[in-house]
């Protein structure tokens, strides 16, 4: 009897060991499936960034192939740190990105509230609202510059002729305002998409209870719905910050950074250092600085949002 119990105990132990081994093997196999994707992402994103870091320590002028490339240390970084032009463009980047991010968040939330209703033709309205997000930024910039803001044959110019007033060249006289407007028009649908998904994930029973308890629209929106989609708001702000900072095409085809450098942002400044100044090392250093500052801003913003949501 004791021998039989001992055999059964050994069999149970072997069975448990086999189950644990199979489970562990299955988990390891699942992780192995991720390796190709991780490798592709690393090669496509991190390798170019590492090359950029290497370039940032080299003095390399594309317009002077007769001058050899030499190691420059941190001189490329020091060039921007002591440059007043860099600090001015940094402030312009923060101004354009910050205002655009705030407007995208506020109007995106209000638009998501408007679209979170079951009314006739709501699907058509949602499609039209999300349309600008799927248009290439350079195409959007060309459309706004030529067919809307043009003071002669654009919609704005034609309207000015009909109403007998002198049209203002907004792109020349108010370039930062135009860039912010185009940023909001281009990226607000992204915020609407994420926040609308969060609103539609709220339980209908909770909404019904809110109505039965006599909660008004303001209380229901800002005290109940907004806290429930705080995670979606956080995701939208984090990703929106990255998208807005790196935006380049809209500036290139509308203001081209002008007049002067009044509508430059850091990514456009990288383009200027590469194409116009032909300074590859400085462009690499500026790109690294831009990435580092973006990560710092995301970290600060994330902490502030998390602190307020607790």
From TrEMBL:
It is a multi-pass membrane protein. The chain crosses the membrane at residues 33-58, 89-115, 127-156, 176-197, 235-254, 283-302. GO terms for biological process: transmembrane transport. It comes from the Bacteria. Its main location: membrane. GO terms for cellular component: plasma membrane. It is found in: Cell membrane. InterPro entries: MetI-like (IPR000515), MetI-like_sf (IPR035906). The keyword Membrane applies. Keywords: Cell membrane, Membrane, Sugar transport, Transmembrane, Transmembrane helix, Transport. Residues 90-301 form the ABC transmembrane type-1 domain. CDD domains: TM_PBP2. The keyword Transmembrane helix applies. SUPFAM superfamilies: MetI-like (SSF161098). This is Permease component of ABC-type sugar transporter.
């Amino acid at each position: 009897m004791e021998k039989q119990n001992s055999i059964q105990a050994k069999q149970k132990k072997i069975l448990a060991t086999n189950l644990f081994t199979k489970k562990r093997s299955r988990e390891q196999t699942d992780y192995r499936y991720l390796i190709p994707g991780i490798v592709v992402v690393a090669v496509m994103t991190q390798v170019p960034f590492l090359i950029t870091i290497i370039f940032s320590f080299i003095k390399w002028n594309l317009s002077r192939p007769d001058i050899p490339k030499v190691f420059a240390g941190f001189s490329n970084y020091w060039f921007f740190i002591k440059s007043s032009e860099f600090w001015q463009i940094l402030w312009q980047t923060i101004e354009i990105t910050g205002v655009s991010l705030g407007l995208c968040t506020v109007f995106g939330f209000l638009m998501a509230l408007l679209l979170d209703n079951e009314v006739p033709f709501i699907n058509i309205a949602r499609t039209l609202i999300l349309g600008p997000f799927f248009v290439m930024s350079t195409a959007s910039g060309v459309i706004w510059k030529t067919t809307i803001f043009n003071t002669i044959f654009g919609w704005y110019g034609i309207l000015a002729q009909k109403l007998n007033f002198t049209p203002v060249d907004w792109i020349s006289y108010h370039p930062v305002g135009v860039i912010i407007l185009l940023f909001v028009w281009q990226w607000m649908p992204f915020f609407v998409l994420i926040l609308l998904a969060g609103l539609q994930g709220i339980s209908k029973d909770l909404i019904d209870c809110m109505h039965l308890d006599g909660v008004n629209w303001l209380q229901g929106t800002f005290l109940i719905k907004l806290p429930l989609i705080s995670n979606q708001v956080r995701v939208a702000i984090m990703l929106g910050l990255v998208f807005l900072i790196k935006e380049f095409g809209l500036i290139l085809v509308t203001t081209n950074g002008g007049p002067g450098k009044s509508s430059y942002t850091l990514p456009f400044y990288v383009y200027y250092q590469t194409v116009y100044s032909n300074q590859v090392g400085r462009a690499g250093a500026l790109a690294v600085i831009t990435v580092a500052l973006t990560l710092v801003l995301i970290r600060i913003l994330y902490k502030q949002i998390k602190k307020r949501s607790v």
